[in-house]
Amino acid sequence: MIRQKKWYPILYMFLVTVFFSTILISFSRYTRDLVEANRKLAFEKAVLKALSIPLPVTASNMDWHNTYLEKIKEPQEDLQGVYIYKSDDMVIGYALPFEGQGFWAPIRGVIGIATDKRTITGIAMYEQNETPGLGAEITKPEFRAQFEGKQIALQGNPLEIKQVTEELDQHSVHAITGATQTSIRFEKILNDALEKWKTEFLHGDNRQ
Amino acid sequence: MSSNKSASKKIILDGLWGNNPIFRQVLGICSTLAVTNLVINTAVMCAALTLTTALSCFTVSLLRAYTPRRIRMMVQTLIIASYVIMVDLYLKAYWPEMSANLGPYVGLIITNCIIMGRCEAFAVANPPVPSLVDGLFNGLGYSLILLAVSITRELLGMGTILGYPMPYFSTLWDKWIIMVMPPGAFFTLALIIWLCRSIQTTGREKTS
After folding, report:
1. pLDDT in the model for residue A29
2. Is residue A40 part of a domain?
3. A129 shares a domain with A62
4. pLDDT of B79-117, one tens digit each?
5. Same structural domain for residues A68 and A94?
6. A56 touches chain B (CB under 8 A)
7. Contact A133 B89 (CB under 8 A)
8. Alpha carbons A115 and B114: distance in angstroms, whole number
9. 3-class secondary-structure state, position A207
10. How far is CA B175 from CA A132, A182, B37, B96, B170, in A?
11. A102 and A63 in one domain?
12. Together in a domain, A63 and A110
């Protein structure tokens, strides 16, 4: 009997592994393009949202993708990873990607900046894993809308996230109650990106 | 035939209530604590777990006559992992937002003790169809408790259910932030286990 042989468990394990691996590998190959497309689309949507480019609620994924291709120029070498929003060769805005460690996992997103290089047109996140209902509220429109029209401060921190009881000015927004850790980290992530932006584009070689 | 019927009825009732994986066997607690602050996340997690438990039990049972005893755990883990990876890939490809919400927890279904518990306790010694039913209803028993926990947490912590504002809770109720935080899950789960066990004991005393 083959099943009494010493090598039978090895052969059996080998066959079972081959069988399940084959299924998984084919399924993973089959979905790979779709997974990759989803990842790209999430980023493209974030760029468009940060730049406050309006799309109807009914817009399909294809609409988002086409709008992105039509309006956004990928970063060139001298632009430090900044995406440019152009229409008829006129620059209308900049999209500055940012990333950093959140409370649980990295937060990745995009800041939209107007042509004056100081006014924020919006922010959007395409990757985060903060606590649902608390830290994850940073992705909600109510929180993100606060950033629209804010100015990057020339002195001190470019932006501030303040407690809900504090008064706001041109450079600050309200934090999310109960999500202190996320708010502190998110403020740091935004400011790290904006500091770089400030040195490069407000004081540096890319000033014009 | 009738003994067959009563046997499957027993399997169903045991999975849902009599031997419920959460409050009787106290298995799979990590995901109970981790993904229960929003009902929608919980529902998807429950569906994923129920599906993988049912299919894993079915497959383990199908192979039970050929699997050498000494390596059966390895084979079971392989089978469970294959199904979980398939679910994970499916979510990544077709429901990327949900995949992002659940983060690493879908992958962690592999280590959920309920699945291996059912494979070891039932599927290795029973034919495929009863094993499938056993896995399915243990998954549903798990879902029952998880949904109860998540409805309690979302309602008291955010005043909503499935994201819809509930009367009274979304307006007058002073939201308990702790319910949305991880500790809220401990309290809610403990109270629900207590409640269910009390009902069970009272029922048993009455019948005896």
Report:
1. 95
2. no
3. yes
4. 999 999 999 999 999 998 888 878 778 888 888 889 999
5. yes
6. no
7. no
8. 57
9. coil
10. 15, 19, 13, 30, 8
11. yes
12. yes
Give the structural domain span for A12. Answer: 2-35
- Higher per-residue confidence, A43 vs A201: A43
A115 CB near a chain B CB, below 8 Å? no
Residues of chain B neighbouring A35 (CB-CB closer than 8 A): 89, 92-93, 96
What are the residues facing A83 on neighbouring strands? A95
Q: How far is CA B63 from CA A2, A163, B131, B150, in A?
A: 16, 59, 12, 36
Nearest residue in chain A measured CA to CA from B153: A133
Q: For chain A, what is the domain count? A: 2
Q: Residue B86 and residue A132: Cβ atoms within 8 Å?
A: no
Q: Which residue out of B66, B87, B176 would a mutagenesis test of the A interface target, given it has the greatest number of A Cβ atoms within 10 Å?
A: B66
**Measured between alpha carbons, how far is B190 from B197 in angstroms, rounded to an integer?**
11
Residue A208 predicted with pLDDT over 70: no
B162 has a chain A CB within 8 A of its CB: no
Contacts of A181 in chain B (CB under 8 A): none
Domain-embedded: residue A50: yes
CA atoms within 13 A on the CB side of A169: 7
* ipTM topping 0.90: no
Domain residue spans of chain B: 21-207
pLDDT at B55 over 70: yes
Please give the model's pTM, rounded to 2 decimal places. 0.81
Which of A24, A44, A177 to mutate to probe the B interface, most B CBs <10 Å? Answer: A24
pLDDT in tens, B130-167: 999 999 999 999 999 999 999 999 999 888 898 888 88
- Which of A3, A38, A178 minimises the CB distance to B177? A178
> Do A86 and A164 share a domain, yes or no?
yes
- Calculate how close chain B gets to A31, using CA atoms only, in Å: 6
Q: A149-153, A204-208, B24-28, B69-73: lowest mean pLDDT where?
A: A204-208
Together in a domain, A154 and A70: yes
- For residues A97 and A27, membership in a common domain is answered with no
Same domain flag for A101 and A142: yes
User: From the list A13, A27, A133, which residue is nearest B86 (CB)?
Assistant: A27
The model's pLDDT over A174-204, given as tens digits with 9 standing for 90+, comes to 998 888 899 999 999 999 999 988 888 877 6
Over residues B51-75, mean pLDDT: 94
Q: What are the DSSP calls for A112-171, one per residue?
A: EEETTSSBEEEEEEEE--PPTTTGGGGGSHHHHHTTTTPBPPSSS-S-EEE-TTSPP-TT
Q: Does A164 touch chain B (CB under 8 A)?
A: no
Q: CA-to-CA distance for B90 and B72, rounded, in angstroms?
A: 27
Residue in the structure block whose two tokens are 């990876």: B85
Res A90 pLDDT > 90: no
